[in-house]
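Thread amino acids onto this structure.
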């Protein structure tokens, strides 16, 4: 048994990196899953099923490589095995202190499928497009089920001579927003566009047929609030003017209106009892360009109510919406490390932390299911161990050398709209000579 000094130098293993919780791949490309361990050597990486059983080699279908990666070779559609190619896995890393287990990692193989892209006038644009007003074009993917695997990588404008010019980020006439749509700031009488979509599974690309955007000129149309739509690339929660963003990400909001004379746009944020220009509150993290508001590196300070004010010489109106930042919860086990004596009682506490700007009540214990593991094995109720209400605490009475190892707490958190998230944390327990 080690001395206290030797134990201080020891740490349980951890995973420095691991695959995404859900990974899709093409049957013509295959997939390699890699976990990287961290901690005092020697480190050993191994793979398990989602329920914790050791994996068997299936040559040509699923193989554990010598470098510790899990490899799914390309396969023919007729060789698809649901339990393998649409399965759940875990990787573990082991060292002399104990074993650290990853969360469940889901794998889903997609049999190659042809797709097409087609330009549509976004439903958030008005049916009537007037010269000088903004418009929004979307690059639609068919079949629809394949759209989640296609990224819009480019838009091009085509002149009257048939020459195609790629639309760049610094083009003042257009903006490709975060969902891949094309925002046109100042529509002309006739404009021709194409879009290009690329599959994230096999890197194959498709170019749309040319789309002719026609805008009407003349007329004196008074802006009407019913003709304004707010576009929310993020998922909607509750009312349509409430949106959620992710911590540190970028959110694009477009406020579309038509009018003649051409309308102007003003963006404001509610601050200290009144609406003020959004850039005066958020500085460079908020960028406005006509009907577009772009929030970058979002943090809790971006939460609040925003106003899009649209006006021309014939009238003014505004639309408000609320932005809420969504942050993934995290877990912390206390104590992080414990050097114990034989016979000592030990208590580990699994504490859930959430973004206070969303309200900590969103992640209260009634929304959480806690699960405990020791060295990669699920801890059921045993003599000398009991779990507190909601399983947040693990108590070990009259501890023995066999209790030494790496303990992990996993939590399934039921968040907004019933969406479940999984988080985990670990702690190491070691014993000193007595």
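Threaded sequence (434 positions):
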């Amino acid at each position: 048994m080690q001395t206290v000094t030797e134990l201080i130098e020891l740490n349980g293993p951890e995973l420095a990196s691991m695959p995404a919780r859900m990974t899709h791949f093409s049957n013509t490309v295959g997939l390699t899953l890699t976990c990287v361990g961290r901690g005092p050597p020697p480190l050993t990486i191994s793979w398990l099923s989602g329920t914790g059983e050791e994996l068997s080699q299936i040559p040509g279908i699923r193989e554990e490589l010598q470098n510790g990666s899990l490899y799914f070779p390309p396969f023919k559609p007729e060789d698809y095995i649901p339990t393998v190619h649409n399965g759940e896995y875990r990787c573990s890393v082991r060292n002399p202190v104990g074993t650290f287990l990853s969360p469940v990692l889901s794998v889903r193989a997609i049999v190659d499928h042809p797709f097409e892209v087609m330009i549509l006038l976004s439903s958030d644009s008005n049916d009537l497009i007037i010269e000088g007003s903004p418009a929004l074009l979307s690059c639609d993917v068919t079949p629809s089920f394949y759209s989640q695997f296609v990224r819009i990588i480019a838009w091009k404008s085509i002149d009257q001579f048939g020459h195609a010019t790629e639309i760049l980020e610094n083009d003042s006439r257009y903006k490709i927003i975060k969902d891949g749509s094309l925002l046109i700031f100042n529509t002309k009488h006739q404009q021709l566009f194409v879009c290009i979509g690329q599959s994230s599974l096999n890197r194959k690309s498709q170019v749309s047929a040319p789309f002719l955007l026609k805008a009407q000129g003349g007329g004196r149309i008074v802006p009407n609030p019913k003709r304004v739509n707010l576009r929310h690339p993020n998922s909607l929660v509750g009312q349509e003017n409430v949106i959620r963003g992710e911590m540190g990400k970028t959110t694009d909001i477009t406020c579309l209106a038509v009018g003649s004379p051409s309308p102007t746009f003003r963006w404001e944020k509610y601050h200290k009892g009144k609406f003020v220009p959004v850039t005066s509150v958020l500085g460079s993290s908020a960028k406005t360009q006509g009907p577009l508001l772009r929030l970058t590196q979002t943090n809790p300070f971006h939460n609040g109510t925003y106003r899009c004010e649209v006006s021309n010489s014939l009238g003014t109106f505004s639309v408000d919406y609320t932005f809420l930042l969504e942050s993934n919860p995290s877990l912390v086990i206390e104590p992080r490390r414990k050097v114990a004596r034989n016979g000592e009682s030990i208590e580990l506490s699994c504490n859930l932390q959430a973004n206070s700007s969303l309200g900590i009540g969103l992640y209260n214990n009634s929304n959480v299911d806690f699960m405990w593991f020791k060295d990669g094995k699920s801890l059921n109720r045993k003599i000398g161990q009991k779990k507190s209400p909601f399983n947040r605490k693990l108590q070990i009475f009259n501890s023995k050398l066999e209790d030494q190892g790496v303990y992990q707490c996993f939590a399934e958190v039921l968040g907004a709209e019933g969406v479940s998230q999984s988080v985990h944390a670990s702690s190491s327990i070691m014993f000193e000579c007595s």
